[in-house]
Design goal:
Helix 1 crosses helix 2, helix 4 runs antiparallel to helix 5 and helix 5 crosses helix 6. The strands form 3 sheets. The chain has a 5-stranded antiparallel β-sheet, with helices on one face. A 5-stranded antiparallel β-sheet has the order 5-6-7-8-9, with helices on one face. A two-stranded antiparallel ribbon has the order 3-4. By secondary structure, it is of the alpha+beta class. The protein has 6 helices and 12 strands. It has one domain: Glutamine Phosphoribosylpyrophosphate, subunit 1, domain 1 (4-Layer Sandwich).
């Protein structure tokens, strides 16, 4: 399984993804799920992937090849004029890959080739944008009302994002929020795990931003986990007690 989050801040976009692809007692694999393409001064595009590994690796390889050898037949994400057109291109490429794989398999196995993507970035003087792309190739864009996207194992880390996210928050606070969201997911679901990959894109920079991997036993991740656990216990103890004398008896 997978957990990836993209936060669209006023100051840029923060991407984070885990690296676990298979879970089991004796079969755990680590694969990078954040991929960035950059033409300095013109555009930065970051993609996060969840779903069938063969599908997502084929997608990234095709985008790489077409960015190195762009043509009218196979346009490139590095030549499309807007982020909307980039999202359309990535979506159609994903659909092309999935349909090609399904043709050679039974209908029962078709769903196993699905993948979901988070795409974000900025082109020249236009604004930074964030998209969620579905296996069918269609997509939606982050808005003021829905300023972040999750893919993969989303349910365990979502409550903290809903309670804590603010568009004007600092990158430092956004990173803390993501760390807590991922920590909650990792503690609850074995299919999501460290290391975690981070990419912070700063609005209007048109350059690669901060890129870092948080490995197992990373001091910062450990500190966040321990501090958050203690804070939750303290918050629980500080909540008001129920006065049983005011509780009406059962009818």
């Amino acid at each position: 399984m997978t957990y990836c989050v993209g936060l669209r801040l006023d100051s840029g976009i923060v991407f984070m993804a885990d690296t676990r692809t298979n879970s089991g007692v004796d079969n755990i694999s680590t694969v990078k799920k954040i991929h960035t393409w950059c033409s300095p001064g013109d555009r930065v595009i970051t993609l996060m992937t969840a779903g069938n590994l063969a599908t997502t690796q084929t997608l990234v390889s095709l985008l790489d090849e077409r960015s190195m050898l762009p043509s009218k037949r196979d346009p490139s994400i590095l030549t499309e004029p807007t982020m909307f057109q980039v999202a359309r291109l990535v979506g159609s490429t994903l659909r092309e890959i999935i349909e090609g794989q399904r043709e050679s398999c039974s209908q029962a196995a078709a769903a196993s080739f699905n993948a979901t993507l988070i795409l974000g970035g900025q082109i020249s003087s236009m604004d930074h944008r964030l998209f969620l792309i579905y296996p069918e190739g269609n997509f939606i864009e982050a808005t003021v009302d829905s300023p972040f996207f999750q893919i993969g194992e989303t349910k365990y880390g979502r409550p903290i994002l809903l309670r804590g996210f603010e568009r004007d928050m600092s990158v430092a606070d956004a990173l803390k929020l993501l760390m807590v969201s991922f920590n909650s997911t990792i503690k609850t679901n074995l299919s999501v795990g460290l290391p975690l990959d981070l990419h912070v894109y700063s609005r209007d920079s048109l350059e690669r931003g901060i890129e870092r991997r948080f490995p197992r036993n990373d001091p910062y991740y450990t500190a966040i986990s321990q501090t958050w656990g203690s804070a939750l216990k303290n918050a629980l103890h500080s909540l008001p007690d129920l006065d049983f004398a005011t509780v009406p008896p059962d009818a």
